Amino acid sequence: MRALTWHGKHDVRVDTVPDPEIINPRDAIIRITSTAICGSDLHLYDGYIPTMKAGDILGHEFMGEVVETGARSTLKKGQRVVVPFVIACGSCYFCGKHQYSACDNSNPADNQDISEELWGHPASGLFGYSHMTGGYPGGQAEYVRVPFSDVGPIVIPDGIDDEKVLFLSDILPTGWMAAENADIEPGDTVAVWGCGPVGLFAVQSAFLMGAARVIAIDHFPNRLALAKKFGAEILNYEDSKVYDALMEMTGGIGPDAVIDAVGLESHGLFADNVLDQIKATAFLGTERPHVLRQAIIACRKGGRVSVPGVYGGFVDKFPMGAFMEKGLTMKTGQTHVQHYLPGLLNAIVEGKIDTTFLISHRMALEDAPHGYDIFKNKQDEVTKVVLKPGLAKAA
């Protein structure tokens, strides 16, 4: 089959690779009909995530048709399913608490030492996201093997287009959990850093959870315009000093809750960010957490900090003094996708959440390297790339 494979920093290719096979009775094989490039895929593309190997198949946002099932899979051939990016067994201590992204069994034992050494406990398995998270082939391919297929995938009713439900695989539940982790109360003011896909879904979710005001912060005009379309007030950090603007907009109090939807690759010519970039380039640091620092400093006393943005290593100059002295609360984590799927699918079917607005580009799987290039380098106009394995390569 054909699949998008990683070969190094800014080097991804569409190669011919072996077809996936049933390995475990709980497996299923899915023929991919739609798969997306995620903002967190760019961390792999930019070489920030360790334990990648040449030839690894990328992609953790995908859906398709069931074509083969193991003896213990609950899926049936012909069903259309969306597959969570988090792989979970459904029966361990953490899955029992619906903390699926903490699953103890989905990351194979041979790979658990890597994350256990770094984070104190082994990570769960993820599709297409390094050997630290299991080394599972991803879904930017014609076919994919889905482990624990009796736990993760959700069956999509007939008559609903792929593009309405594809983002149930990651970014929609991630944006929803980001807002939920902000413990939003009716009438709150919520500030969201980053108007990429997760940030935009966090904006929608915050309003649905009762926020009176959402302030969206970015520097790409088109992405800010999308946030404004959903009712957010907007701040371009290239035109305004974010802290000063937030204080003025909130009467000197600060936002009740702040959401860092940017993660480890902050943008902008700020002194701390330039220093972080130098340290990352020289292998003296792993993250560029300017947004996290700014969000903590801007949050009101007693406020909440939600961090859906991806971090993987160590954060230098974390403002622990401000965090403690202001009595802030922080929640973060990979998304417990399986927990949110039924409710969010219903919200889509009932028209309460729109997902299709986000897609700016549709292209063939064979054009995926071009998709990565424009998603990284033309972020104002390229908000989301959806790959269609069935489409012909562009001329």
Folded structure, characterized:
- Helix content is about 30%, strand content about 20%.
- By secondary structure, the protein is α/β, with parallel strands linked by helices.
Q: Would you spell out the secondary-structure blueprint of this structure?
A:
Blueprint: E1 2-8, E2 11-16, E3 28-37, H1 41-45, E4 56-57, E5 61-69, E6 80-83, E7 86-87, H2 93-96, H3 109-119, E8 125-126, E9 143-146, E10 154-155, H4 162-165, H5 171-181, E11 189-193, H6 197-208, E12 213-218, H7 221-229, E13 233-236, H8 242-249, E14 257-260, H9 271-281, H10 290-298, E15 304-307, H11 320-325, E16 329-332, H12 337-349, E17 361-364, H13 368-377, E18 385-388
Parallel strand pairs: 11-12, 11-14, 12-13, 14-15, 15-16, 17-18
Antiparallel strand pairs: 1-2, 1-4, 3-5, 3-9, 3-18, 5-6, 6-10, 7-8
The N- to C-terminal Cα distance equals: 21 Å
Q: How is the main sheet built? A: 7 strands, mixed
Strand content: 15-25%
The helix fraction, in percent, is 25-40%
Mean pLDDT across the residues is: 94
Low-confidence parts lasting 5 or more residues at pLDDT below 50?
none
Question: What are its keywords?
Answer:
6-stranded parallel β-sheet; 29% helix; alpha/beta; globular; 395 residues; single chain; 18 strands; 7-stranded mixed β-sheet
